[in-house]
Predict the 3D structure of the following.
Amino acid sequence: MIPTYRKQVQPFVWDGVEVLAYKEQDGTHRAVTRQVLTGAEHGQGTSLRYFEVGPGGHTTLERHEHTHVVIPIRGGGTALVVDRIVPLAAHDVVFVPSWGWHQFRAADDEPLGFLCAVTVERDRPVLPTAQDLGVLRADPHIAAFIRV
Amino acid sequence: MIPTYRKQVQPFVWDGVEVLAYKEQDGTHRAVTRQVLTGAEHGQGTSLRYFEVGPGGHTTLERHEHTHVVIPIRGGGTALVVDRIVPLAAHDVVFVPSWGWHQFRAADDEPLGFLCAVTVERDRPVLPTAQDLGVLRADPHIAAFIRV
């Protein structure tokens, strides 16, 4: 049985939803947790996750064929989305298209928590090569922003 | 080109997103608006909408084959989900399974705004028959809650 109602029992903690590691420890990310709110069993072909990046933390700089729809619901931060650095505040809507580079960073003094929708069937993320990093760093704003 | 960044320019108003009627005026709903945040062009097979129900208002009591994932992000209220009346507060996660009856009501003194994910391809909602209403009203909590 899929629960029809998952209460947020504390801020950003849901009844019956486990707080997981973002991904394996590989040095590409910092202070990120993951919670899976919905998945294949919900019959939409998509999964909705809640990620929380602690103050000063960041997700992995990566890209992939599948898309992301991201909506912050806690705190704030900044993101690289394809070739733009954008500020993030609650309820902004970010779309990461296929093969667009992306990285999410929390502000230094507050967390960044966001909903992220993906298709259930999806490819694995790819990390930037030295050549990719050279291209990204040709833009000084991106060079100053990214963490690898 | 699909925007990669839609700023929430005022609370619950997004850059370039139109505020639409919830559906045709048929007497089954009250004080509801609809905004489409993402759709087929985002490549996930789902659409994410933001609905806002004004104080004292309600959505249509209906059901359908497709599912809903609903996450309130403004105010609060109450919902019928299948056969339960549940309180709604920000970030609760509601799942409406196939053919589950559902209706969302705002509190009398505040709006209820929620994100709602659906598949892009979906069937049309069905309204309750007199017989359906008889079954629903056999539960006194549901009888007191629903608006038709």
About this structure: Chain A has a mean pLDDT of 97. Chain A has one domain: 17-145. The radius of gyration of chain A is 15 Å. The domain at 17-145 of chain A is CATH 2.60.120.10 (Jelly Rolls).
